[in-house]
Structure formats: structure tokens, C-alpha cells
Amino acid sequence: MTDYALSNAWQQARQRLALLEAELDPATRRHILDLGVRPGWHCAEVGAGGGSIAHWLCHIVGPTGRVLAIDIDPSLVAVDAPPGLEILAQDLTRDALPDGQFDLVHARWLLHHLPDIDDAIRRLINALKPGGVLLLEEPDFYPVHAGQRPLYTQFMDALTRAVVAATGRDCYWARDLPQRLTDLGLSDVDAAAEVAVLRGAGPLAQFYRLSGQQARERVVAGGYMAAEAYDAALSLLDDPRLWAFGACTVAAWGRRPPL
Ligand SMILES: C[S@@+](CC[C@H](N)C(=O)[O-])C[C@H]1O[C@@H](n2cnc3c(N)ncnc32)[C@H](O)[C@@H]1O
User: Fold this and answer.
1) Cα separation, 38 vs 32, whole angstroms
2) Is the CB of 17 under 6 A from ligand 1?
3) pLDDT (tens digit, 9 = 90+) per residue, 218-241?
4) Domains and CATH numbers, the chain
5) Per-residue model confidence (pLDDT) at position 2
6) With contact defined as beta carbons under 8 Å apart, do 105 and 128 qualify?
7) Nearest Cα to Cα of residue 132 among 36, 53, 216
8) Residue with CA closest to ligand 1 atom 27
9) Ligand 1 in reach of 108 Cβ (< 6 A)
10) Which 8-state DSSP code applies to residue 258?
């Protein structure tokens, strides 16, 4: 079992994940459509979270297709799920995915929480049919260091470090995703990246504010940031005069070579 810091059982988890979906879904949908998804495809959405992409995929692939949503805690993806959506409670680091069954496997903002990224990617590749496509999207937080507000930068660095501390890594590696996919044997690898712009009190600021509230104990007890400064940074996120960069989400995709 992995030590996931931002459990979906938290009372504000649904709201927190809905804010993330509002920010990321437009680019994700664009990537998936560009990869050629169509009625009849079999898709797996891993680390499905609040479920917006799994639900949307059900409409795209239609009754002749299949969508499997997997999460260590799938309680939120199950809310208002379209008929036919398959839901599995699984830990990607431990449980075997169905082998060789999917035209598309997608995971977004999941791998940075896991201890062994390449092992997780191998498991996702194994779930693909030969010729199937893997789409991964992960945040790289380098842009938060480019701003004019040291308190914001310190907060984002402390928050992200504390949340992924159990992995032994930080959140500054997603730039390597295309290389990882190439090294793990995928063909037709390509990538794109998008830096988020955050306005205080806006939806993305609210997402980080909720994440910050949920992880406060970990950050402060772990010595990543002093409580007073941390609370000041949470308030700063409510200030509409704040403009800053959020994460850069790196999307990388590639195809499992045909047998
Ligand atoms: C940051 S959320 C992202 C949710 C969704 N992919 C999105 O982008 O909107 C990470 C999700 O991964 C799930 N998760 C964390 N560790 C997991 C694991 N080991 N196996 C499967 N799911 C996991 C969490 O429960 C959570 O729903």
C-alpha cells in the first residue's frame, strides 16, 4: 500500500478534485481526441480521482466500447457514473491490471505519488493491446520558482515536497516523461507541455488552498515550512492581486509496438 497523502476520503476531496479537473480537462480531452479515440475503443483511466475523464470517455466510446476506471479509492469516480463504467479499487503499485486489453491507457497527476515511476509505467504498458496508446500527464513544478512572490514559491515547494516525501523524490522530474516512455520501449513517442497561470482566489488557487489545508499537518510536522508562514501563504492564495505560475503539466504519449 502506498502512502497517498491526499486521500479521497477527506471531506473536501470531491471539491478539490473538481477544481483540478476544471483546470486540466480541456488539454486532456484535446490530447485524447488527437490520439484518435473513437466508438468501440477499450480505455483504462488509472488514478481516476473525481472521474470526469472516465465519465467523458464513456460517452466517446459508446455502448460498443469499454471504460475501466481504477483508483486506490474509487468512491468519487462512482458518483453519478454513466451506465457501463467499470470501476475497480486497485493499488497500481501492487495489483495486476488486466493484461493486453486496452486501446488507450491514461493516467494524470498519479505517478508523482508513487515510489517507482518506471515500474508503474511498465504496468500501464502491459495493460495495452499491441498497438495501443499510453497517455501520461504529470506536473513538473519548476515554474513556481519563476515568480515574484517568495512566500508563494516557498509554500508550493514545501507542499509538493511534503506530499510526495514517501516516494523519496520531489516534483521536478516530469520533464523526463518522453525519455522514460522511449526507454521503456514505446514507439511514436511525442509530448507537449502547458504551464498553468494562477490568479489568487481563482479555481486553481482554490485547488492549492484545499491541497494545502489537507496536507498542513504533514508540511508543518515534517519541518517543510513554519506554521505561521504556511498559514500566511494559504491566505495569500485568496488574494485576487496574486498572479503566479502553477505547475507545468507534461503530457507524453507513445504506442505499444505491435507483436
Ligand atoms: C491527484 S489525484 C488525480 C486524479 C485524476 N487523475 C485527475 O487528474 O483529475 C491522484 C489520484 O490517484 C489515486 N491514487 C493514488 N495512489 C494510487 C495508487 N497507488 N493506485 C491507484 N490510484 C492511486 C488517488 O486516490 C487519486 O484519486
Assistant:
1) 10
2) yes
3) 999 999 999 999 999 999 999 999
4) 13-255 (3.40.50.150)
5) 66
6) yes
7) 36
8) 49
9) yes
10) P
Q: How many A from CA of 47 to the centre of ligand 1? A: 4
pLDDT of 1 above 60? no
Q: Are strands 66-71 and 187-199 parallel, antiparallel or unpaired?
A: unpaired
- Ligand 1 binding pocket includes 20 (Cβ within 6 Å): yes
* pLDDT for the residue numbered 178: 98
Please tell me the residue having the least CA distance from ligand 1 atom 12. Answer: 47
pLDDT above 90 covers a percentage of the chain that reads 97
Distance from the alpha carbon of residue 163 to the mean position of ligand 1, in angstroms: 13
25 lines ligand 1 (CB under 6 A): no
CA-CA distance, 90 to 208, in Å (whole number)? 26
Write down the mean pLDDT value for the chain: 97
| Mean pLDDT for the stretch of residues 149-175 | 97
Residue 217 DSSP class: H
